[in-house]
Amino acid sequence: MLTVELHAHSELSYDGRDPIDLLLEQAAAVGLDALAITDHDEIDASLEAAALAPQFGLIGIPGIEITSEAGHVLGLGITEAVPPGLPYDETLARIRELGGVAVVPHPFQKSRSGVAYNVTRHQLASADAIEIYNSRLLTGIANMRAERFASERDLPVTAGSDAHISEMVGQAVTNVDSEVEEGLEGILHAIREGRTTVEGKRTPWRISFRQAGGGAKRRVKNRVRSLVPR
User: Fold this and answer.
1) What is the domain count for the chain?
2) What is the pLDDT of residues 110-150, one digit of tens each?
């Protein structure tokens, strides 16, 4: 059984703070077996992290958090970026064409681009897995709704810290029924087959607010930078 972080952000995300080496160090320090960095609509840092992961005793999982037309979708195990803004169904198809696993994160958190409010329940259930525990929560209601949805339809499940700072990597993990020797493909296969369980704890409110505030500042800074003539 492997302990895996499937949802974390580096400084390449518009709202992330830390470089990949700090995320990898944290993952190793808390005893994880594998790490996926899933930056918003960016994949370069994730590819670099996946290549460096063995130096930290980790399995590297390349990935990305894609802003589909309906909301956010995680593409795990892919090495090319799927363009943002595509229809939900096409986003899932693109991920699978690239050999990846399509996971819907925080589906019932409308304020964080959860897709459940923009697709049918049949479409939501067509993902390869549903993230049923996201550490960045206020009441936990959205997580409970996601868990109930997945349970009623016997869907594969995952968890993620959704860390935007390195200290929060490992707050929520997916226990994957695979072996280290099976590597990345073993993890992806186990997720598809639903051989996973989840565990996690809430990101402390003060850190959630700090992450959100820092993300807002970085978005403004990046926006201003993009408007400056080169």
Assistant:
1) 1
2) 988 999 999 999 999 999 999 999 999 878 999 999 999 99
According to DSSP H, which parts of the chain are helical? 20-29, 44-52, 88-97, 121-125, 141-153, 183-193, 205-227
Q: How far apart are CA 184 and CA 180, in angstroms?
A: 9
CB of 119 closer than 8 Å to CB of 144: no
**Residue 113 per-residue DSSP state:** T
CATH of the domain at 212: 3.20.20.140
- Give residue for tokens 């019932």: 108
Q: What is d(CA 25, CA 80) in angstroms, rounded to the nearest whole number?
A: 25
Rounded to two decimals, the pTM is 0.89
> CA-CA distance, 79 to 53, in Å (whole number)?
15
88 backbone dihedrals φ, ψ, rounded to 5°: -55, -50
Q: Tokens 């897709």 correspond to what residue?
A: 115
Give how far the C-alpha of residue 149 lies from the chain's centroid of Cα atoms, to the nearest Å: 19
Beta-strand pair 157-160/129-134: parallel
How far is CA 228 from its chain centroid? 31
Tell me which residue range forms the domain holding 140.
Answer: 2-227
